[in-house]
Amino acid sequence: MPSPARREVDVLFDGSFEGFLCVVYAFYYVQITPRTIQSVNDFQPSITQEEYFVLTDGGQARTVEKALQNKISADASRRVYYAFLSSAMDRLSALLHYIVLGFKLGGKIEEHLHNDCVLRVHKMAREVGREAHKLTGFCRFEETAQGIYYCGITPEHHVLEPLAEHFSDRMMDVSWVIHDKRHHRAAVYNTQNYTIVDVKPGQPPPAMAGNEQQIQNLWTLYFNTLAIEARKNPKLHRQMVPIKFRGDMTEFRI
Fold first, then answer.
1. Residues near 158 by beta carbon (within 8 Å), at least 6 away in sequence
2. Which residue, 10, 79, 218, 252, has fewest beta-carbon neighbours within 10 Å?
3. What is the pTM of this model?
4. Residue 51 pairs with which residues in a beta bridge?
């Protein structure tokens, strides 16, 4: 039960990971108990409940992040980040409970998988990590008429940041865009750094370079020719390349 000094409020923040860490900071230093935690973009106003907007502060976010690493573990800090990227509706409340419990138990929290919030955070982080890892191999970049490489994806979770980190290390000499068509956001890389921007829903992909379609056709021909009819195993194929990714992959799309 919260102490009498605490205020139960509906918490609003800017939707960023830093913003959520500031919510954790406010839980301890402003003595608020979130009844709900919502991004301002998803906010559903209530005329009967008090609302509290948490401002994003880089210093507060770093304080909480260091506390996660020092009081629990570096793995727990990374797990919190990946679980935050989940599309699950309950992720924010589960994460807050996990962090509060973690600050009490320290690294031993990982032994408490019987606790609902611990198990939930582990599951969300695992799902996000698995999807991000698979997409590092399933992303297909197309050269556009502007010389920028474009990749469209339709992920279940918000995995743009992990993908942008991955490809900024491996495709550092070219400009590229990874477009999350489901969540209407894009990672834009300019050969030096990347930024995450909002994209208007229904925004069409840019025009391809003149020889891009020919290259895609050759790749599809190679993919189909390589297959050995007698060794086809659709079940294994679905496990290795899930159907949900195929609509954005050249070899399946054309």
1. 85, 86, 87, 128, 180, 183, 185
2. 218
3. 0.85
4. 10
